[in-house]
# Entry
Amino acid sequence: MRLSRCGLATVVLVLSACEGCGGGLAANRHVDAGGVDAGNRLVRTISATLNRNIDILFMIDDSSAMRLAQDNLRASFPTFLTRLMSPPGLPNIHLAVVSQDMGAGDGSISGCNATGGKKGIFQYTGGIIPPAVTPCATHLNAGATFIANVGGVANYTGEMAEVFSCIAALGETGCGFEHQFAAILRALGADGAGAAPAEDQGFLRPDAYLMVVMLTNEDDCSADQGIPLFDVSQNTNLLSQLGPPANFRCNEFGHTCDGASPQRQAPGNDVATTVTYNSCASNDSNGYLLSPSDVASRLKVLKADPSQVMVASIQAPTTPYTVHWRNPSTADTSCGVASCPWPEISHSCTAADGSFGDPGVRTAEFVEQFGANGLLLPICSDNLAPSLDRIAQMINDRLGPPCLQGTIADEPGKPGTPDCDVTMFYAKGDGTFGEKAVKPCSETAGAGPCWQLQPGSSCQGQLVMLTPDPTLASGPTPTSGSIARSARPTTRRQLAGRRSDQGSALKASCKYAEAERRDMIAWPSSARRARSSGRASRSTQRSTSSA
# Structure
């Protein structure tokens, strides 16, 4: 896009079909490298979708010794909400809770049934919060299985923090062979086993961003279908094919450490010995457990744009990774001595309140598959509020308004009003586009449609904030391709030929302050020559390629 006016910062924003848009702009945006106009001033174009929809799934470990971590999460949740409510306000939220309990074995393992445990079904009935002895009241509307607050319309009464506190109190009686990955995939219908459970239907919106948050003190042990990893009828002692009937199987068959599986048998059968490993990773070659990379891929394909998927794991660190041994739970002489020590993974962290965590090797690898959209956060903390705050910050960054670098000049004679001309192009019911000038919010008393610039905590400049027109019906969410196409039209004739499903666009042309023109925007003549030479070179290369 080229401009004929001088000294302008140009922002092209696309308005998508969001439910009750709260006034912010999503981070599905593109910022070009910038260029110079005839007045030797920097011009940049920002494209962004207006998408304030976020689906948040909390996977909460409810196996033994998780009560303290759950209490910590529930107590810290208000911090999460406070950050989400930062300007432009609370996004359009769907929030659900799922247990890691997917059962294990033939039902003979304590706490693990043979019918799929909690089956990836959202937990919404309310748990027992000590010292109470009866379940808490969720305050969800009748028939609701997850929290929803869209456009200010909630499916619950009271405060969201109270609702979450109740449905997140899962207790600690769930299966001890944790199936974090399997539970998440089943809840979202992404495991290849058919649609999500009936209770989970309606949670995942096609256009919404997705954030998956795991709270767990042990590593994932999601086994592939038909794998007898949890057999306890034939595998009962140290030298059984799968070893003793204990959680160390998840380490032995789920990890490789220093090039091999963690050692099952104690050196010299000495129960007091320990072995520490330097480098451990998920074992994806033996076929026992789900691959972290495959699980990540299954989540990413839920969205046309994989960058809309974010994950965070509140877990124990991957190191130190130490195996110790203990006396067997049942008589075991299979190793040739009177009592064969059984292996056990040592905690890699312990909090002041006594809660602990074991090395989360596979869960960490899962998070790493998402790059900048993944967060690894500590579970062994007296206060999970900082971790939840970071998660909410990531959501805000992705859903938030675009940042306009530099200082915008005030309109002459109107101190405090940025000198910007704003035009909105919107989808009409007949399949064409209309356009209207948008006034500053200072002139409309905040009534939409209007715009304003606000400083941002993570923005070295100002955020472009839009309050939508409440009289305009939302159209379908545009794709990244339609964003680019919708940003181009500048006349009614150009707009008339476009379909309403290509989204609406807003163009804002803002003048920079004089100091910004001199100090930040001007490009030296040598840089202009280099850029011009680069364009000419690329043009020649294209011509040569075409020939």
